[in-house]
């Protein structure tokens, strides 16, 4: 009778935990969807402002006048509307995140009652202050864009050939230069869809008392694909962003410097020379903002150069806690892929026959998953012995589930041996 009551209690806790984790996953999906929508609308505003800048720039522009070729406000209106939509999604994003965190904390309290080793909830402690700062920064950055029917000439002191001059810039151009920070919002939103920031990764991070933030995701991705991240996610965006900002501040000074920044690739090439720490011998920026951009190019180039050397000679290591999360994510992923491939092969084999094309492809996929799983088999068994195996969200809450997982591992081992013999 006592055993039956215990079994019923475990079944009830399992179902209740499964329901709560499913709801938590849905809340997290809403949060990252809002962040992606915010990033998309913010960058649509950047695109509209770019078109407005190119259309309104006058070919008769010089360093001491701010002539504009067009007075159309269409693109500025689009930039304002998209920025307003992005601002709405900023508030929705943080609102959904707070709901998800509170629900996560309530779930942790329930799960801690069934654990011998409770989780340590770090969401409210570690993310509350940083979330507030990030929210303020996002709101301020979304308020910086070329406003319709609002513009002004801004003189900026400059020195050229031992002469003190004043360069003329439009307020809309300076606002447009600050809008390039929105590109980083898109990278951050896309990082939420990697395996290092999904719901499972965040639970691992909670267990090992580390944070599943963008920095952790970036370190995991660069540890797995170092050269690709350095080239695609760092070098190319840095060249484009810094090159276009340099063009904004140096294009009006073409009458002084003799450069041709009508073509954006010229500015990107100049930034490329400074990013490689070589410098452009016949380039001398006339404006103070352009000098600041060149200094940033040197700083970014130093970082990229250092990371490239570290990548070529050694791996970029995670710290101990993040390494545990990184390893567990891939172990769980390998086990889940093997189980999924096994069920797919069994289903297709029974439906179409063992020698059918679909079954053969499923068998090839299963063989690959077996090889992948065998590489991590011993470590997964060790995780089960140390009660660190969290194969799925349900296993973290139910007492006695470890035996079932060990039985599952034994069955998978038997399948792998069977397919090896075949």
Molecular structure report:
The chain is mainly alpha-helical. The protein folds into three domains: 29-193; 225-318, Helix Hairpins (Orthogonal Bundle), CATH 1.10.287.70; 320-421. 71% of the residues lie in helices and 4% in strands. The protein has 15 helices and two strands. It has a two-stranded antiparallel sheet with strand order 1-2. The longest helix is centred in the N-terminal third of the chain and has 55 residues, at 2-56. InterPro entries: K_chnl_Ca-activ_SK (IPR015449). One of its GO terms (molecular function) is small conductance calcium-activated potassium channel activity. This is Odorant receptor. Keywords: Membrane, Transmembrane, Transmembrane helix.
Strand and helix order? HHHEEHHHHHHHHHHHH
Mean pLDDT: 77
Which structural class matches the secondary elements?
mainly alpha
Overall shape: it is elongated
Number of strands: 2
Distance between the termini: 46 Å
Low-confidence stretches: 1-15, 116-126, 386-401
Side-by-side strand order of the widest sheet: 1-2
**Largest sheet composition:** 2 strands, antiparallel
How many helix segments?
15
Strand fraction: under 5%
Our Rg estimate from Cα atoms comes to: 28 Å
- Counting structural domains, the number is 3
Classify the helix fraction into a percent range.
over 70%
Keywords: Membrane, Transmembrane, Transmembrane helix
Transmembrane segments: 36-53, 73-92, 133-150, 174-195, 225-246, 292-313
InterPro entries: K_chnl_Ca-activ_SK (IPR015449)
Organism: Blepharisma stoltei
